[in-house]
Design goal:
With 116 residues, the chain is an alpha+beta fold. The chain has 3 helices and 5 strands; from the N terminus they run αββαββαβ. It has helices at 3-7, 65-79, 97-107, and strands spanning 40-47, 54-59, 83-86, 89-93, 110-113. It is elongated. The N and C termini lie far apart (52 Å). The relative contact order is 0.18.
Length: 116
């Protein structure tokens, strides 16, 4: 069915249809449906350019901000330190690569330690 045909639909649910998948109810994969086993995340150690502090960076995250913001919170609690999520990367202050690796592997992600 083309978009043109949809415009003239008299389906009462038409206006409720999802603009992405054009289905009602929406049939798009949900953010929460991310499958950790299908992703390899990388962890590296970096020196914060401004403060010169060491940070553990988890990068090459799949684009899924709500999911990884939740992970970032858990990692901060686990490591007892500060951190942030931005640009599909999680930064955790200090060298916590091993803890982060074990934590993410438990969830199901594949982990590669890179550089540093
Ligand atoms: Zn949808």
């Amino acid at each position: 069915m083309s978009d043109y045909e949809l415009v003239y639909s008299d389906d009462p649910n038409f206006k409720k249809r999802c603009p992405k998948c054009s289905k009602f109810p929406c049939a798009c994969p949900k953010k929460e449906d991310l499958k950790p086993t299908e992703h390899t995340l990388k962890i590296r150690l970096e020196k914060n350019s401004r403060g010169g502090k060491t940070v553990s960076v988890v990068f090459e995250l799949p684009a899924n901000e709500p999911y990884f913001k939740e992970i970032e919170k858990k990692l901060k609690a686990l490591c007892g330190t500060g951190g942030s999520y931005k640009n599909n990367m999680i930064e955790i202050q200090g060298d916590h690569r091993e803890k982060i690796k074990v934590f993410l592997e438990k969830i199901g992600f594949k982990i590669k330690l890179a550089g540093g």
